[in-house]
Amino acid sequence: MMYNDLKEAFLLREDVTFLNFGSFGATPKPIFESYQRFQRELEYEPVQFIINKGPEYLKESRERLGEYLFSHPDNLVYVPNPTYAVNIVARSLDLKAGDEVLSTDIEYGACDRTWEFYCREKGATYVRQTISLPIQSKEAFLADFWKGFSEKTRLVFISQITSATGLILPIKEICEEAKQRGLLVFIDGAHVPGHISLNLTQLDADFYTGACHKWMMTPKGSSFLYVKPEHQDELDPLIISWGYQADYPSHSQFLDYHQFNGTRDFSAYLTIPDAIDFMKMNDWWGVAESCRILVRKWLPKLCDLVGSEPLAPVTDEFIGQMGSIPVRCGNPVELKHILYNEYKIEIPVMVQNNQVYIRYSINAFNSEEDLNILEKTLKDLKKRTLIF
């Protein structure tokens, strides 16, 4: 369905200023209705849906997603979220005592915990290389990052768009340099699909995970793991189920091992073609560009208001549809509650490396008025010395 006013496409509460699309996305009505149709079909005939029709629907969905991401569909498997995908790879990777996984100190916390856990089990080291903020240039970031490399480095794990800091990182250059150094590369692209363009074939990472339930707007719990063919058989299933050493194996061990994890409702995965159609019908790349312009227009102003500065040059190279404002406050958890309960603003307050960030996201339903509200709220919070 095509909308003249895209705000009408979403189910979000009208009394809340929603500036937190980055956390869990929000699903437009036509995609949500498709989701419910699949769920009803599941309940009409659960056995036929799960055993026969469901796998065919999954295949069709992966084919559409493969076209969208420029990947062969058999190199993609659906997972509930990117953290699940990171666990599959981290658990399976043949790390030895003394090996190192090179990352940054601005990664998503759940992924940090995953790598710390599996590296500790295997006697390896997870290296959180310090990134100087604010980033001055792409070259400065790359110089910072590669300081963490050593002869023990086996894998690079890095976000394409970071979570707390909301920054687009130069992943293409990281992949190219890593290949020259003989390293595996795993990209956390949780915020990428539907946010900025992604061509998995050109990027040539060994592993890539992305969320469809964020910027692609599918229902919650729909993400993917991409694995280059030469690594697929190296990955053990995170959940041992009927696909492991299957009685009737398919053409792909990768799909057998990771696609079916026992009884569950996988309807969210099946709506991905609907999400792609919705974006195409509503000129989503044009919408995204308008949102990025709004984010970049306001980021310097909001940072200046609280006495900080943007975390990178305010350009398309580093800033997409999210802007993170460094602030100082005594109690970030309390600040988050105050923003929602007193000011009716849904916005994350994040802490990373002892720095607090208020991160705003802009999507089709947002307007300049939402950022005016945020500006007035920040001024009021300063008067109340809740930020200083």
UniProtKB/TrEMBL annotation:
PANTHER family: HERCYNYLCYSTEINE SULFOXIDE LYASE (PTHR43092:SF2), L-CYSTEINE DESULFHYDRASE (PTHR43092). It comes from the Bacteria. This is Aminotransferase class V-fold PLP-dependent enzyme. One of its GO terms (molecular function) is transaminase activity. Residues 58-372 form the Aminotransferase class V domain. Keywords: Aminotransferase, Pyridoxal phosphate, Transferase. Gene3D superfamilies: Aspartate Aminotransferase, domain 1, Type I PLP-dependent aspartate aminotransferase-like (Major domain).
